[in-house]
Amino acid sequence: MAAAAARITAVDTYDIRFPTSRELDGSDAMNPDPDYSAAYLVLRTDAEDALEGHGFSFTIGRGNDVQVAAINALRPHVIGRPVAELCADPASLYRVLVGDSQLRWLGPEKGVMHMAIGAVVNAVWDLAAKRAGKPLWRLLADATPEWLVSQVDFRYLTDALTPDQAIELLQRGRSGLAEREARLLHQGYPGYTTSPGWLGYSDEKLTRLAHQALAEGFTQIKLKVGADLADDIRRCRAARNAVGPDIRLAIDANQRWNVAEAITWTKALAEFDPYWIEEPTSPDDVLGHAAIRTGVAPIKVATGEHVQNRIVFKQLLQAGSIDVLQLDAARVGGVNENLAILLLAARFGVPVCPHAGGVGLCELVQHLSMFDYLALSGSTEDRVIEYVDHLHEHFLDPVTIERGHYRAPRAPGFSAQMLPESIARFSYPDGDFWAADLARTEGTRP
């Protein structure tokens, strides 16, 4: 069909799960046995170019079926939409999805439904970038400040950030963009790795992977903490001995502690010079984070991967609760809401160091950080993207790391597209892997 008349014809969904719990990959004090999973969708059209939009929500196993059901609930809002209009204005769909009053009641703008909205919206951006022939970071960086601001929902934000202030930030951010793009293409964007630090790993594996991280050019690693203080002291000592005094060592409690406990525990680890303490308490506890930040200074406080929307991020910034903002590409309502969060961070002068790892999160979030560097913050100082060496082989355009830096993606789109064979093998419960696994399990039962 001619491009001008093309419409969305299908929203196909898949429950994709990987058995990462069997090697304790991803294990931490709150989540001891995650099976990294993706509630995955493909937007299909009747356009002659046959381009598709791919998106997903990240989960850690059981409950992925609930997330898929939430995406399916949004299908009536998407089918039949004109492709050209949708790609020219993704905010038009974002507002409709957020505004469905009966589904909004389940949030509002939080939890499973909001993550589903993010998956659909991100798939639209993937399609828009493919149709433009650009990687998403470049599509965003090339856009005018006025158009970018038109993509942001400022409801509940204007006490901290107005559209005029956002336009001013973006106009100022464009100065020197061409020079920064050349630098980005040459050097990449700095990353740090969590791969050595999973809680279920032995000290020997931690040490080996920390040495490997140094050899690969990373200048920051991260360890999971929070289950047992004596174990944390031992593991932090092993990590610090492995990397020496000049490499940043971040620690991550994954929401394990109460406020007073977070302060006491973090101080007990201060001898190992942690750069930040991540998710020390509930992601919803704005004032608790502020108290922890005061109590553990000069150790920085970082959070964001479970912060449910732009409004909570606004409050964290207003209350001076965080030193580092860790947005997530798949937790909130997609690119549109993450634009708002990046603008808020720029307004308050707080560096953004995104959460990644999981299934495909590294692939997505690199685009947001690269846009931020090129067209908003203008800096990579004290800014790094998390990297975890898991499951990249299942993506058509996987991340590339060189000398501890993310290389800028060149392929059009949002880097969200999984390989068809991976979808077929790891779809749950009928994919090749899971069907064979279930048959094997049933065959061993008495």
TrEMBL record:
Q: Which cofactor does it need?
A: Mg(2+)
Protein name as annotated: L-fuconate dehydratase
Organism, by scientific name, is Kitasatospora kifunensis
Q: Which GO terms describe its molecular function?
A: L-fuconate dehydratase activity; magnesium ion binding
Give the EC number(s) listed in the UniProt record: 4.2.1.68
Which UniProt key words apply to this protein? Lyase, Magnesium, Metal-binding
| SUPFAM superfamilies documented for this protein | Enolase C-terminal domain-like (SSF51604), Enolase N-terminal domain-like (SSF54826)
One Pfam family per UniProt: MR_MLE_N
Query: What reaction gets catalysed by this protein?
Result: L-fuconate = 2-dehydro-3-deoxy-L-fuconate + H2O
List each copy of the Mandelate racemase/muconate lactonizing enzyme C-terminal domain by range.
203-299
The top EC class, named as a word, is: lyase
Q: Which InterPro entries does the record cross-reference, listed alphabetically?
A: Enolase-like_C_sf, Enolase-like_N, Enolase_C-like, L-fuconate_dehydratase, Mandel_Rmase/mucon_lact_enz_CS, Mandelate_racemase_C, Mandelate_racemase_N_dom, RHMD-like
Q: Some GO term, biological process aspect, for this entry: which one?
A: amino acid catabolic process
